[in-house]
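Design a sequence for this backbone.
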């Protein structure tokens, strides 16, 4: 299999970032979030949103 220079660069950067933060995942993520905030760009989250129960939604009719 041929070596892919882009993959190698991504792995090198990932390793450098991990070493910079002593391989502490919380420190790595905190640093990434700080860079995101400083970038000024909109960050999109695809985290699943919790849905309200039908009886708690605005305009819902509750039969009791």
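Sequence:
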């Amino acid at each position: 299999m041929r070596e892919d220079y882009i993959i190698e660069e991504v792995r090198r950067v990932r390793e450098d970032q991990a070493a910079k933060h002593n391989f502490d995942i919380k420190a790595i993520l905190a640093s990434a979030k700080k860079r995101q905030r400083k970038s000024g760009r909109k960050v999109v989250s695809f985290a699943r949103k919790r849905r309200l129960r039908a009886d708690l939604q605005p305009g819902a009719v509750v039969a009791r």
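Residues 5-56 form one domain.
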